[in-house]
Hints:
By secondary structure, this protein is of the alpha+beta class. The chain folds into two domains: 23-57; 76-264, Glutaredoxin, CATH 3.40.30. 38% of the residues lie in helices and 16% in strands. The chain is built from seven helices and twelve strands. Strands 1-10-9-4-5-6 form a six-stranded mixed β-sheet, with helices on both faces. Helix 4 packs across helix 7.
Amino acid sequence: xxxxxxxxxxxxxxxxxxxxxxxxxxxxxxxxxxxxxxxxxxxxxxxxxxxxxxxxxxxxxxxxxxxxxxxxxxxxxxxxxxxxxxxxxxxxxxxxxxxxxxxxxxxxxxxxxxxxxxxxxxxxxxxxxxxxxxxxxxxxxxxxxxxxxxxxxxxxxxxxxxxxxxxxxxxxxxxxxxxxxxxxxxxxxxxxxxxxxxxxxxxxxxxxxxxxxxxxxxxxxxxxxxxxxxxxxxxxxxxxxxxxxxxxxxxxxxxxxxxxxxxxx
Length: 265
C-alpha cells in the first residue's frame, strides 16, 4: 500500500540518485538496521561458543559437606535432608504436663531413655501428620532398641488444650501404635513456658486454622541432655496440600531411628 499523508516520501528515479551520489534517509536507516542486526548475530554466536567452551571446562560440583558431630550411622545426604545438627549437651528444659491418657508426667520420668521430642498442633493438616508418620516408621525401624526410646510431643494449639484433642490426633495418625508415645498438653501458661524453653515460636490463627509454629525435633539423651536438633520439612501440591515423597518419609524414619539408636547404645 502506498504511504499517505505528510510522511509519504517523494520518489525519484533510481538512476538520478545514483548519478547524484545521494541516498535517501529511509535507505540509510535500513542499512543501519541491517548492520546492527548482523553484528548482534555475530555477538550471539560468539557467546554461544564461549558458553559451550566454559561448560566443557567447568570443574565438577564440590562434594557435599558433612556437618561435624553427626553420628556415623547417619549419611551426609540424610543429615542434610533432616537439617540435622548437634547442639551443646546441656540439660533439656524440664516440665510436667498431661499426656493423651490423662496422666500427669514429668520429662524427668523418662531419665535413662532417649527422648525424641517434637511440638505438634492437634488440628494440624500440614507438617505434623508427616512427622507422625516418620515417628511411627522410626519406632518400627528401631527393632529391639525401641524400648529404650520415648517419642513425645508438646501441644502448640491454645484452642485445643483438652486431653481428648491430643488423644484424637494420636489415634488418627497411628501414634498410639508406639507403646511409649506421649502427646502432652496442659494449661496455656504451662505450655508457653515449655515453648520458650525450647525456642518454639507459636502464632495462632484462630480456632479453625492450623497454628503457625516452629517445627523442631529434639533428641535428648538418657542423661536428660539435648544432643541433636532436626528440622522437619514438607513439599506442597499445587492445591497447597503438604506432602513428602514416600522415599523421603521412609528416609526420615530411618534417620530418626539412627540418631536415637546412637544415643541409646
